[in-house]
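Dear colleagues,

As part of the handover before I leave the project, I'm documenting each prediction I ran so the next person doesn't have to rerun anything. This entry is a single chain, and its sequence is reproduced below.
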Amino acid sequence: MSTTPIYDKLKALGITLPPVAVPAAAYVPFVQTGKLVFLSGHIAKKDGKPWVGQLGKNMTTEEGKAAARAIAIDLMGTLHAAVGDLGQVKRIVKLMSLVNSTGDFTEQHLVTNGASELFGEVFGPVGAHARSAFGVAQIPMGACVEIELIAELA
């Protein structure tokens, strides 16, 4: 790993980037076109298994936020694998977050803050991004949250 300020920040936060997860279906983990890198949706994992749950039913907003933060770490691992050095990231452009939630749960945006805040902390101003957060009836394997990312390279 590089010794850019981003990696120093990850080390200070006690974060070790995971390897790229093997896709669970017919897709690739990332695609680069021009200076943009699109990362496929990553589901929340806990202890290496899907982090199963539904917000508003058997998970709290704070638990969902922790799951979104965990996804952000996985996304950074995939982004590192895609580009070789997170210092090459010019901007985290957009996150799209899907939150497995009941019909009356309305804090998807707060759940997604778990990822957004970590990107801001690690990347600084480069980590500020556009975002969508949706409540959905179900996510593959029963996961509580799924997030995809678009980044721009220098």
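Helices lie at 5-12, 61-83, 108-123. Strands lie at 30-33, 36-43, 45-46, 49-50, 89-100, 130-136, 145-153.

All the best with the project,
I.
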